[in-house]
Amino acid sequence: MWRDTLAVAGKDLRIEVRSRVLLNQVVPFALLVLVLFAFALGPQRAPMAQAAAGLFWVALLFAAVLGVQHSSALESGEGTRDGLRMSGLDPAGIFLGKTAALCVQLVVLEVLLALGVVLLYGVHVRSAGLLVTACVAGTAGLAAVGTLYGMLASGLRVRETLLPFLLLPVVAPVLLAGTRAWQAALGTGAGGGADPWVELLVVFASVYLALGVVIYGPLLEAS
Amino acid sequence: MCRAVHLRDAVALAGRFPALAGATLAVERGEVVVLVGPNGAGKTSLLRACAGLLAVTRGEAIVLGCDLRSDRSSVRRQVGMLGHVAALYDDLTVAENVRFAVRAARASQGSVGPALERLGLVGRLARTQAGRLSAGQRRRVALAILAARRPALWLLDEPHAGLDAGARSILAEMVKEAAAEGASVLIASHELAVSAVLADRVAQMAGGRVVGELGASRATTIATEPTAAPGVERGTGHEAARDDALETLSSRAPAPDGAHVA
User: Against a cut of 0.90, is the pTM above it?
Assistant: First the structure.
Protein backbone atom coordinates (compact mmCIF):
# COMPACT_ATOMS: atom_id res chain seq x y z
CA MET A 1 0.00 0.00 0.00
CA TRP A 2 2.76 2.48 0.91
CA ARG A 3 4.54 1.78 -2.35
CA ASP A 4 1.34 2.62 -4.24
CA THR A 5 0.89 5.71 -2.07
CA LEU A 6 4.31 6.98 -3.10
CA ALA A 7 3.70 6.18 -6.77
CA VAL A 8 0.36 8.02 -6.88
CA ALA A 9 1.58 11.00 -4.83
CA GLY A 10 4.65 11.31 -7.07
CA LYS A 11 2.49 11.14 -10.19
CA ASP A 12 0.02 13.80 -8.97
CA LEU A 13 2.80 16.15 -7.84
CA ARG A 14 4.65 15.72 -11.12
CA ILE A 15 1.46 16.60 -12.99
CA GLU A 16 1.02 19.66 -10.76
CA VAL A 17 4.57 20.80 -11.46
CA ARG A 18 3.87 20.52 -15.21
CA SER A 19 0.38 22.02 -15.27
CA ARG A 20 1.06 24.70 -12.58
CA VAL A 21 -2.64 24.86 -11.73
CA LEU A 22 -1.84 25.58 -8.07
CA LEU A 23 0.58 28.41 -8.73
CA ASN A 24 -1.21 29.95 -11.71
CA GLN A 25 -4.83 29.62 -10.63
CA VAL A 26 -5.44 28.44 -7.06
CA VAL A 27 -2.93 30.67 -5.23
CA PRO A 28 -3.93 33.86 -7.11
CA PHE A 29 -7.58 33.05 -6.40
CA ALA A 30 -6.92 32.57 -2.67
CA LEU A 31 -4.88 35.78 -2.44
CA LEU A 32 -7.61 37.64 -4.33
CA VAL A 33 -10.15 36.46 -1.76
CA LEU A 34 -7.93 37.86 1.02
CA VAL A 35 -7.61 41.20 -0.79
CA LEU A 36 -11.35 41.41 -1.40
CA PHE A 37 -12.03 40.71 2.27
CA ALA A 38 -9.58 43.48 3.14
CA PHE A 39 -11.51 45.88 0.88
CA ALA A 40 -14.78 44.80 2.45
CA LEU A 41 -13.50 45.36 6.00
CA GLY A 42 -12.17 48.84 5.30
CA PRO A 43 -8.81 50.52 5.88
CA GLN A 44 -8.68 50.12 9.68
CA ARG A 45 -6.35 47.41 10.91
CA ALA A 46 -8.27 46.39 14.03
CA PRO A 47 -11.30 44.72 12.40
CA MET A 48 -9.03 43.03 9.85
CA ALA A 49 -6.77 41.61 12.56
CA GLN A 50 -9.84 40.49 14.48
CA ALA A 51 -11.20 38.63 11.44
CA ALA A 52 -7.83 37.41 10.11
CA ALA A 53 -8.08 33.86 11.46
CA GLY A 54 -11.53 33.23 10.02
CA LEU A 55 -10.67 34.85 6.71
CA PHE A 56 -7.55 32.69 6.37
CA TRP A 57 -9.60 29.51 6.76
CA VAL A 58 -12.44 30.71 4.53
CA ALA A 59 -9.97 31.60 1.77
CA LEU A 60 -8.22 28.26 2.29
CA LEU A 61 -11.48 26.30 2.01
CA PHE A 62 -12.54 28.07 -1.19
CA ALA A 63 -9.13 27.53 -2.75
CA ALA A 64 -9.04 23.92 -1.53
CA VAL A 65 -12.23 23.22 -3.48
CA LEU A 66 -10.37 24.22 -6.66
CA GLY A 67 -7.44 22.00 -5.71
CA VAL A 68 -9.75 19.07 -5.04
CA GLN A 69 -11.51 19.56 -8.36
CA HIS A 70 -8.18 19.54 -10.18
CA SER A 71 -6.99 16.47 -8.29
CA SER A 72 -10.13 14.47 -9.04
CA ALA A 73 -10.21 15.69 -12.66
CA LEU A 74 -6.86 13.94 -13.24
CA GLU A 75 -8.66 10.61 -12.95
CA SER A 76 -11.79 11.67 -14.82
CA GLY A 77 -10.33 11.74 -18.33
CA GLU A 78 -11.60 9.41 -21.02
CA GLY A 79 -10.36 5.94 -20.19
CA THR A 80 -8.29 7.16 -17.24
CA ARG A 81 -10.75 5.89 -14.63
CA ASP A 82 -10.70 2.42 -16.22
CA GLY A 83 -6.92 2.68 -16.41
CA LEU A 84 -6.74 3.42 -12.69
CA ARG A 85 -9.02 0.47 -11.88
CA MET A 86 -6.98 -1.79 -14.14
CA SER A 87 -3.65 -0.51 -12.87
CA GLY A 88 -3.42 -3.01 -10.04
CA LEU A 89 -2.85 -0.22 -7.51
CA ASP A 90 -4.24 -0.75 -4.03
CA PRO A 91 -7.29 1.58 -3.70
CA ALA A 92 -6.16 2.55 -0.20
CA GLY A 93 -2.77 3.45 -1.68
CA ILE A 94 -4.46 5.54 -4.38
CA PHE A 95 -6.47 7.38 -1.72
CA LEU A 96 -3.48 8.03 0.52
CA GLY A 97 -1.31 9.04 -2.44
CA LYS A 98 -3.83 11.53 -3.77
CA THR A 99 -4.41 12.83 -0.23
CA ALA A 100 -0.67 13.24 0.33
CA ALA A 101 -0.22 15.13 -2.96
CA LEU A 102 -3.15 17.39 -2.10
CA CYS A 103 -1.65 17.96 1.37
CA VAL A 104 1.62 19.14 -0.15
CA GLN A 105 -0.23 21.56 -2.43
CA LEU A 106 -2.39 22.86 0.42
CA VAL A 107 0.69 23.43 2.59
CA VAL A 108 2.23 25.59 -0.15
CA LEU A 109 -1.06 27.45 -0.40
CA GLU A 110 -1.24 27.93 3.38
CA VAL A 111 2.27 29.35 3.60
CA LEU A 112 1.45 31.93 0.94
CA LEU A 113 -1.94 32.68 2.49
CA ALA A 114 -0.38 33.07 5.94
CA LEU A 115 2.11 35.55 4.52
CA GLY A 116 -0.78 37.38 2.89
CA VAL A 117 -2.68 37.53 6.18
CA VAL A 118 0.33 38.88 8.05
CA LEU A 119 1.07 41.51 5.41
CA LEU A 120 -2.48 42.56 4.56
CA TYR A 121 -4.16 42.32 7.94
CA GLY A 122 -1.20 43.26 10.14
CA VAL A 123 -1.51 40.42 12.63
CA HIS A 124 1.23 39.26 14.99
CA VAL A 125 1.85 35.58 15.62
CA ARG A 126 2.03 34.73 19.33
CA SER A 127 2.31 30.96 19.04
CA ALA A 128 3.82 29.71 15.81
CA GLY A 129 3.72 26.13 17.10
CA LEU A 130 -0.04 26.23 17.59
CA LEU A 131 -0.46 27.86 14.19
CA VAL A 132 1.51 25.12 12.48
CA THR A 133 -0.16 22.30 14.46
CA ALA A 134 -3.62 23.57 13.53
CA CYS A 135 -2.57 23.88 9.89
CA VAL A 136 -1.11 20.38 9.74
CA ALA A 137 -4.16 18.73 11.29
CA GLY A 138 -6.58 20.87 9.28
CA THR A 139 -4.72 20.20 6.05
CA ALA A 140 -4.78 16.44 6.57
CA GLY A 141 -8.52 16.55 7.22
CA LEU A 142 -9.23 18.83 4.25
CA ALA A 143 -7.14 16.72 1.88
CA ALA A 144 -8.70 13.45 3.06
CA VAL A 145 -12.28 14.61 2.84
CA GLY A 146 -11.56 16.42 -0.44
CA THR A 147 -10.08 13.31 -2.05
CA LEU A 148 -13.04 11.24 -0.88
CA TYR A 149 -15.72 13.66 -2.07
CA GLY A 150 -13.77 14.37 -5.26
CA MET A 151 -14.04 10.69 -6.14
CA LEU A 152 -17.70 10.63 -5.10
CA ALA A 153 -18.55 13.50 -7.45
CA SER A 154 -16.16 12.65 -10.26
CA GLY A 155 -18.47 10.17 -11.95
CA LEU A 156 -21.20 12.78 -12.28
CA ARG A 157 -21.74 15.20 -15.16
CA VAL A 158 -22.39 18.08 -12.77
CA ARG A 159 -19.30 17.43 -10.64
CA GLU A 160 -17.90 20.98 -10.94
CA THR A 161 -20.99 22.55 -9.41
CA LEU A 162 -21.89 19.69 -7.11
CA LEU A 163 -18.50 19.30 -5.42
CA PRO A 164 -18.50 22.64 -3.52
CA PHE A 165 -22.10 22.00 -2.52
CA LEU A 166 -21.14 18.61 -1.06
CA LEU A 167 -17.75 19.53 0.34
CA LEU A 168 -18.18 22.88 2.07
CA PRO A 169 -20.82 21.77 4.63
CA VAL A 170 -18.74 18.71 5.50
CA VAL A 171 -15.60 20.77 6.20
CA ALA A 172 -17.44 23.24 8.44
CA PRO A 173 -15.80 21.66 11.53
CA VAL A 174 -12.37 22.41 10.02
CA LEU A 175 -13.37 26.03 9.48
CA LEU A 176 -14.66 26.36 13.03
CA ALA A 177 -11.83 24.54 14.80
CA GLY A 178 -9.11 26.03 12.59
CA THR A 179 -10.40 29.54 13.16
CA ARG A 180 -10.58 29.08 16.94
CA ALA A 181 -7.09 27.58 17.08
CA TRP A 182 -5.67 30.39 14.94
CA GLN A 183 -7.43 33.03 17.04
CA ALA A 184 -5.66 31.59 20.06
CA ALA A 185 -2.36 31.53 18.20
CA LEU A 186 -2.78 35.14 17.01
CA GLY A 187 -4.20 36.36 20.32
CA THR A 188 -7.33 37.72 18.66
CA GLY A 189 -9.85 35.34 20.20
CA ALA A 190 -12.24 35.75 23.11
CA GLY A 191 -10.01 33.59 25.27
CA GLY A 192 -10.14 29.92 26.22
CA GLY A 193 -7.74 27.17 25.33
CA ALA A 194 -6.98 26.02 21.82
CA ASP A 195 -6.51 22.38 22.77
CA PRO A 196 -10.10 21.21 22.22
CA TRP A 197 -10.10 22.79 18.76
CA VAL A 198 -6.80 21.21 17.78
CA GLU A 199 -8.14 17.90 19.08
CA LEU A 200 -11.24 18.34 16.93
CA LEU A 201 -9.02 18.91 13.87
CA VAL A 202 -7.01 15.78 14.67
CA VAL A 203 -10.15 13.68 15.18
CA PHE A 204 -11.66 15.01 11.94
CA ALA A 205 -8.51 14.15 10.01
CA SER A 206 -8.21 10.71 11.61
CA VAL A 207 -11.84 9.81 10.91
CA TYR A 208 -11.70 10.81 7.24
CA LEU A 209 -8.30 9.23 6.64
CA ALA A 210 -9.58 5.94 8.08
CA LEU A 211 -12.87 6.23 6.20
CA GLY A 212 -11.05 6.93 2.95
CA VAL A 213 -8.76 3.92 3.32
CA VAL A 214 -11.80 1.70 3.78
CA ILE A 215 -14.30 3.07 1.26
CA TYR A 216 -12.19 4.54 -1.54
CA GLY A 217 -12.05 1.15 -3.31
CA PRO A 218 -15.83 0.64 -3.42
CA LEU A 219 -16.25 4.28 -4.49
CA LEU A 220 -13.75 3.78 -7.32
CA GLU A 221 -15.67 0.73 -8.48
CA ALA A 222 -19.04 2.41 -8.26
CA SER A 223 -18.13 5.71 -9.89
CA MET B 1 -3.03 -25.02 -14.96
CA CYS B 2 -6.47 -23.42 -15.17
CA ARG B 3 -7.84 -21.80 -18.32
CA ALA B 4 -7.15 -18.15 -18.94
CA VAL B 5 -10.84 -17.42 -19.46
CA HIS B 6 -13.81 -19.56 -18.55
CA LEU B 7 -17.20 -17.95 -19.12
CA ARG B 8 -20.34 -20.05 -18.95
CA ASP B 9 -23.75 -18.46 -19.41
CA ALA B 10 -22.26 -15.20 -18.13
CA VAL B 11 -24.72 -12.35 -17.76
CA ALA B 12 -23.54 -8.77 -17.24
CA LEU B 13 -25.60 -5.60 -17.14
CA ALA B 14 -24.68 -2.20 -18.49
CA GLY B 15 -27.17 -0.07 -16.60
CA ARG B 16 -30.49 -1.84 -17.02
CA PHE B 17 -29.60 -3.51 -20.28
CA PRO B 18 -27.86 -6.87 -20.63
CA ALA B 19 -24.44 -6.31 -22.17
CA LEU B 20 -23.74 -10.03 -21.95
CA ALA B 21 -26.76 -12.32 -22.17
CA GLY B 22 -25.42 -15.77 -21.35
CA ALA B 23 -22.00 -15.65 -23.01
CA THR B 24 -19.96 -18.84 -23.01
CA LEU B 25 -16.33 -18.82 -24.01
CA ALA B 26 -13.19 -20.69 -23.04
CA VAL B 27 -9.68 -19.42 -23.78
CA GLU B 28 -6.72 -21.65 -23.01
CA ARG B 29 -3.30 -20.45 -21.89
CA GLY B 30 -1.24 -19.32 -24.83
CA GLU B 31 -4.26 -19.13 -27.11
CA VAL B 32 -5.23 -16.17 -29.31
CA VAL B 33 -8.97 -15.76 -29.83
CA VAL B 34 -10.56 -13.09 -32.00
CA LEU B 35 -14.11 -11.92 -31.29
CA VAL B 36 -16.09 -10.73 -34.30
CA GLY B 37 -19.63 -9.52 -34.67
CA PRO B 38 -21.67 -6.46 -35.50
CA ASN B 39 -21.78 -3.31 -33.39
CA GLY B 40 -23.58 -4.02 -30.12
CA ALA B 41 -22.86 -7.75 -30.30
CA GLY B 42 -21.14 -7.63 -26.89
CA LYS B 43 -17.46 -7.86 -27.89
CA THR B 44 -16.29 -4.91 -25.81
CA SER B 45 -18.56 -5.93 -22.94
CA LEU B 46 -17.01 -9.39 -22.93
CA LEU B 47 -13.52 -7.87 -22.76
CA ARG B 48 -14.59 -5.50 -19.98
CA ALA B 49 -16.13 -8.38 -18.04
CA CYS B 50 -12.88 -10.36 -18.36
CA ALA B 51 -11.00 -7.30 -17.09
CA GLY B 52 -13.29 -7.03 -14.09
CA LEU B 53 -14.62 -3.66 -15.26
CA LEU B 54 -18.11 -4.99 -15.86
CA ALA B 55 -19.78 -7.01 -13.12
CA VAL B 56 -20.95 -10.47 -14.06
CA THR B 57 -24.24 -11.00 -12.25
CA ARG B 58 -25.12 -14.56 -13.30
CA GLY B 59 -23.35 -17.60 -14.68
CA GLU B 60 -19.71 -18.62 -14.27
CA ALA B 61 -16.86 -16.19 -14.91
CA ILE B 62 -13.37 -17.30 -14.01
CA VAL B 63 -10.34 -15.45 -15.34
CA LEU B 64 -6.80 -16.65 -14.57
CA GLY B 65 -8.20 -18.71 -11.73
CA CYS B 66 -10.05 -15.78 -10.11
CA ASP B 67 -13.82 -15.85 -9.82
CA LEU B 68 -14.99 -12.51 -11.20
CA ARG B 69 -18.31 -12.74 -9.38
CA SER B 70 -16.66 -12.59 -5.97
CA ASP B 71 -13.27 -11.01 -6.58
CA ARG B 72 -12.75 -8.71 -9.54
CA SER B 73 -9.77 -6.78 -8.20
CA SER B 74 -7.36 -9.73 -7.89
CA VAL B 75 -7.34 -10.42 -11.60
CA ARG B 76 -6.49 -6.89 -12.67
CA ARG B 77 -2.79 -6.97 -11.94
CA GLN B 78 -2.47 -9.94 -14.31
CA VAL B 79 -4.59 -8.47 -17.09
CA GLY B 80 -3.61 -5.82 -19.62
CA MET B 81 -6.26 -4.03 -21.63
CA LEU B 82 -6.02 -1.84 -24.69
CA GLY B 83 -9.35 -0.05 -24.89
CA HIS B 84 -10.84 2.29 -27.47
CA VAL B 85 -9.07 5.17 -25.74
CA ALA B 86 -5.48 5.07 -24.51
CA ALA B 87 -5.66 5.78 -20.77
CA LEU B 88 -2.78 8.25 -20.40
CA TYR B 89 -2.06 11.27 -18.23
CA ASP B 90 -1.73 14.19 -20.62
CA ASP B 91 0.73 16.16 -18.43
CA LEU B 92 3.14 13.24 -18.04
CA THR B 93 5.65 12.40 -20.73
CA VAL B 94 5.47 9.20 -22.73
CA ALA B 95 8.23 7.59 -20.64
CA GLU B 96 6.66 8.73 -17.36
CA ASN B 97 3.28 7.28 -18.36
CA VAL B 98 4.86 3.92 -19.14
CA ARG B 99 6.98 3.95 -15.97
CA PHE B 100 3.95 4.76 -13.80
CA ALA B 101 1.86 1.95 -15.34
CA VAL B 102 4.72 -0.52 -14.93
CA ARG B 103 5.32 0.54 -11.34
CA ALA B 104 1.61 0.22 -10.55
CA ALA B 105 1.58 -3.30 -11.96
CA ARG B 106 4.71 -4.19 -9.99
CA ALA B 107 6.50 -5.17 -13.17
CA SER B 108 10.21 -4.62 -13.69
CA GLN B 109 11.25 -1.05 -14.54
CA GLY B 110 13.95 -2.63 -16.67
CA SER B 111 11.31 -3.53 -19.23
CA VAL B 112 10.35 0.12 -19.85
CA GLY B 113 13.31 1.02 -22.08
CA PRO B 114 13.03 -1.96 -24.44
CA ALA B 115 9.25 -1.50 -24.70
CA LEU B 116 9.61 2.17 -25.64
CA GLU B 117 12.33 1.31 -28.13
CA ARG B 118 10.25 -1.42 -29.70
CA LEU B 119 7.32 0.94 -30.30
CA GLY B 120 9.59 3.64 -31.66
CA LEU B 121 8.99 5.91 -28.68
CA VAL B 122 12.57 7.00 -28.14
CA GLY B 123 14.53 10.24 -27.95
CA ARG B 124 12.46 13.38 -28.09
CA LEU B 125 9.20 11.44 -28.42
CA ALA B 126 9.80 9.67 -25.10
CA ARG B 127 10.11 13.09 -23.44
CA THR B 128 6.96 14.49 -25.10
CA GLN B 129 3.90 15.03 -22.95
CA ALA B 130 1.14 12.56 -23.82
CA GLY B 131 -1.35 15.38 -24.38
CA ARG B 132 0.64 16.49 -27.41
CA LEU B 133 0.57 13.13 -29.17
CA SER B 134 -1.62 12.08 -32.07
CA ALA B 135 -4.23 9.35 -31.54
CA GLY B 136 -2.00 6.79 -33.24
CA GLN B 137 1.01 7.74 -31.10
CA ARG B 138 -1.13 7.47 -27.95
CA ARG B 139 -2.07 3.93 -28.97
CA ARG B 140 1.61 3.16 -29.45
CA VAL B 141 2.21 4.31 -25.86
CA ALA B 142 -0.63 2.09 -24.66
CA LEU B 143 0.97 -0.81 -26.54
CA ALA B 144 4.33 0.02 -24.97
CA ILE B 145 2.69 -0.24 -21.54
CA LEU B 146 1.39 -3.70 -22.46
CA ALA B 147 4.78 -4.73 -23.81
CA ALA B 148 6.48 -3.58 -20.61
CA ARG B 149 3.91 -5.09 -18.25
CA ARG B 150 3.71 -8.48 -20.00
CA PRO B 151 0.32 -9.46 -18.54
CA ALA B 152 -0.92 -13.03 -18.46
CA LEU B 153 -4.07 -12.07 -20.36
CA TRP B 154 -4.14 -9.43 -23.10
CA LEU B 155 -7.51 -7.86 -23.87
CA LEU B 156 -7.32 -5.85 -27.08
CA ASP B 157 -10.34 -3.85 -28.22
CA GLU B 158 -10.05 -2.88 -31.88
CA PRO B 159 -6.26 -2.86 -31.52
CA HIS B 160 -5.59 -1.95 -35.14
CA ALA B 161 -7.64 1.23 -35.08
CA GLY B 162 -5.46 4.29 -35.62
CA LEU B 163 -2.25 2.30 -36.07
CA ASP B 164 -0.06 2.69 -39.14
CA ALA B 165 1.41 -0.29 -41.01
CA GLY B 166 4.58 -0.31 -38.93
CA ALA B 167 2.72 -0.32 -35.63
CA ARG B 168 0.35 -3.02 -36.87
CA SER B 169 3.32 -5.17 -37.69
CA ILE B 170 4.79 -4.62 -34.22
CA LEU B 171 1.41 -5.43 -32.67
CA ALA B 172 1.28 -8.71 -34.61
CA GLU B 173 4.77 -9.61 -33.38
CA MET B 174 3.84 -8.75 -29.81
CA VAL B 175 0.71 -10.90 -29.91
CA LYS B 176 2.63 -13.88 -31.32
CA GLU B 177 5.39 -13.50 -28.74
CA ALA B 178 2.93 -13.17 -25.87
CA ALA B 179 1.14 -16.34 -26.96
CA ALA B 180 4.45 -18.16 -27.35
CA GLU B 181 5.34 -17.19 -23.78
CA GLY B 182 2.05 -18.65 -22.52
CA ALA B 183 -0.04 -15.49 -22.28
CA SER B 184 -3.55 -15.55 -23.71
CA VAL B 185 -4.87 -12.89 -26.04
CA LEU B 186 -8.48 -11.94 -26.62
CA ILE B 187 -9.04 -9.52 -29.50
CA ALA B 188 -12.29 -7.76 -30.39
CA SER B 189 -12.10 -6.59 -33.95
CA HIS B 190 -14.04 -5.59 -37.02
CA GLU B 191 -10.93 -6.03 -39.12
CA LEU B 192 -11.13 -9.78 -39.58
CA ALA B 193 -8.53 -9.81 -42.35
CA VAL B 194 -5.74 -8.54 -40.08
CA SER B 195 -6.96 -10.18 -36.88
CA ALA B 196 -7.69 -13.67 -38.15
CA VAL B 197 -4.09 -14.23 -39.19
CA LEU B 198 -3.10 -13.82 -35.51
CA ALA B 199 -5.84 -16.08 -34.19
CA ASP B 200 -6.03 -19.69 -33.15
CA ARG B 201 -9.80 -19.37 -33.15
CA VAL B 202 -12.41 -16.83 -34.18
CA ALA B 203 -15.57 -16.55 -32.08
CA GLN B 204 -18.60 -14.80 -33.43
CA MET B 205 -20.80 -12.79 -31.08
CA ALA B 206 -24.37 -11.56 -31.45
CA GLY B 207 -26.83 -10.28 -28.90
CA GLY B 208 -24.38 -10.53 -26.02
CA ARG B 209 -23.63 -14.21 -26.65
CA VAL B 210 -20.99 -16.25 -28.42
CA VAL B 211 -23.00 -17.84 -31.22
CA GLY B 212 -20.31 -19.86 -32.95
CA GLU B 213 -16.63 -20.46 -33.53
CA LEU B 214 -14.32 -21.01 -36.46
CA GLY B 215 -10.81 -22.25 -36.90
CA ALA B 216 -8.30 -19.59 -37.83
CA SER B 217 -7.68 -20.94 -41.33
CA ARG B 218 -11.36 -20.89 -42.25
CA ALA B 219 -11.71 -17.41 -40.80
CA THR B 220 -8.69 -16.23 -42.77
CA THR B 221 -10.19 -17.67 -45.96
CA ILE B 222 -13.43 -15.88 -45.29
CA ALA B 223 -11.61 -12.67 -44.52
CA THR B 224 -9.57 -12.72 -47.69
CA GLU B 225 -11.89 -14.48 -50.14
CA PRO B 226 -15.41 -14.21 -48.79
CA THR B 227 -17.15 -15.02 -52.06
CA ALA B 228 -15.36 -18.38 -52.21
CA ALA B 229 -17.15 -19.54 -49.08
CA PRO B 230 -20.17 -21.80 -49.48
CA GLY B 231 -23.59 -20.25 -49.10
CA VAL B 232 -22.51 -16.81 -50.25
CA GLU B 233 -23.81 -15.25 -53.41
CA ARG B 234 -21.26 -13.85 -55.82
CA GLY B 235 -21.56 -10.24 -56.82
CA THR B 236 -22.23 -8.93 -53.35
CA GLY B 237 -19.86 -6.40 -51.78
CA HIS B 238 -16.73 -7.66 -50.04
CA GLU B 239 -17.81 -6.64 -46.55
CA ALA B 240 -21.34 -7.98 -46.95
CA ALA B 241 -20.05 -11.22 -48.46
CA ARG B 242 -17.59 -11.64 -45.59
CA ASP B 243 -20.31 -11.14 -43.00
CA ASP B 244 -22.64 -13.55 -44.80
CA ALA B 245 -19.90 -16.17 -45.07
CA LEU B 246 -18.94 -15.82 -41.45
CA GLU B 247 -22.54 -16.16 -40.38
CA THR B 248 -23.09 -19.18 -42.60
CA LEU B 249 -19.97 -21.00 -41.52
CA SER B 250 -20.24 -20.18 -37.84
CA SER B 251 -23.74 -21.61 -37.77
CA ARG B 252 -22.30 -24.88 -39.12
CA ALA B 253 -19.28 -24.90 -36.85
CA PRO B 254 -19.27 -27.34 -33.94
CA ALA B 255 -20.17 -25.63 -30.71
CA PRO B 256 -17.50 -25.24 -28.06
CA ASP B 257 -18.08 -26.98 -24.77
CA GLY B 258 -21.35 -25.59 -23.46
CA ALA B 259 -21.57 -22.84 -26.06
CA HIS B 260 -24.83 -21.58 -27.43
CA VAL B 261 -24.92 -21.88 -31.18
CA ALA B 262 -27.53 -19.88 -33.03
Answer: no
> Is the Cβ of A88 closer than 8 Å to some Cβ of chain B?
yes
Nearest residue of B to residue A16 by CA position? B91
Is the ipTM of this structure higher than 0.85?
A: no
Give the model confidence (pLDDT) of A57-98 as tens digits.
Answer: 999 999 999 999 888 888 877 677 888 888 888 899 999 999
pLDDT of the residue at B228: 52
What whole-number distance in Å separates Cα of residue B239 and Cα of residue A197?
72
Chain B nearest-CA residue for A18? B91
Taking CB atoms and an 8 Å limit, are A88 and B105 in contact across chains? yes
Min Cα distance A79 → chain B (Å) is 5
Q: Which of A75, A71, A98, A68 is nearest to A168 (CA)?
A: A68
Structural domain total, chain A: 1
pLDDT bucket at A46, cuts 50 / 70 / 90: confident
- Cβ atoms of A140 and A106 within 8 Å: the answer is no
Partners of B32 in the β-ladder: B185
Would the CB atoms of A82 and B81 count as touching at under 8 Å?
Answer: yes
Full domain range(s) for residue A30: 2-222
Pair A201, A138: CB distance under 8 Å: yes
Q: What is the DSSP letter of B154?
A: E
**Tens of pLDDT along B67-84?**
888 877 778 888 888 888
β-strands B209-215, B201-206 pairing: antiparallel
Name chain B contacts of A88, Cβ cutoff 8 Å.
Answer: 76-77, 104-106
Check if A83 contacts B (Cβ < 8 Å): yes
